[in-house]
Amino acid sequence: xxxxxxxxxxxxxxxxxxxxxxxxxxxxxxxxxxxxxxxxxxxxxxxxxxxxxxxxxxxxxxxxxxxxxxxxxxxxxxxxxxxxxxxxxxxxxxxxxxxxxxxxxxxxxxxxxxxxxxxxxxxxxxxxxxxxxxxxxxxxxxxxxxxxxxxxxxxxxxxxxxxxxxxxxxxxxxxxxxxxxxxxxxxxxxxxxxxxxxxxxxxxxxxxxxxxxxxxxxxxxxxxxxxxxxxxxxxxxxxxxxxxxxxxxxxxxxxxxxxxxxxxxxxxxxxxxxxxxxxxxxxx
Length: 284
Description:
By secondary structure, the protein is an all-alpha fold.
């Protein structure tokens, strides 16, 4: 087991941690992060988002460099933009970076609150709703909120709001209401199926990956079910059956999909059971 996963398990079991660097210094994953070079802005986003799966990542020099980059180049007065241009804010990247900030203890920062306010003002969860965001960036990249709100953007936003509720502020009424509406919208789709033909909504939505990238994966959907405590909802049954069917003969789960981009680091390979996924999925 990688020492970073050992650290995470101990933190989640509320065991005392005297020095996280005792784990970092022996972690292959942390070592691979430290060796990343020549990252483009997207690669820096993926590296930052991935590193936040490791407790105390905010103490790592690379993570500190990535936070400084995001603050200087990608954080705008309206939210996080993956290009740095305010008019090209899109739901998935804004949400992913906000979630990263929540996990890094920065959920109350000005940058994070701007991103949260963008979600509160402009994210929609229903086909009948139209966003009031005036810029066209959300219509360039696959039509994030054109005629039908992008399901990936909805899923990433719901995931992020659940993390915000858990790590930053459980008493934010607006966030809690958006979670309720967003989770219900996803459950109407049985979490991953199109209403029109019952087919999977997007590529990789029925595949496990870890850590996350901009695609919406089975791993994201399981996280949403767990955090929202929706496992007993009958509309989640097909997703849970899919998860059960993917369990290997050795009792674990494998990574199905590995995103390819410099800066995105998969925590396990596809040849054997993923220790990270098996740990995360076993509790559902």
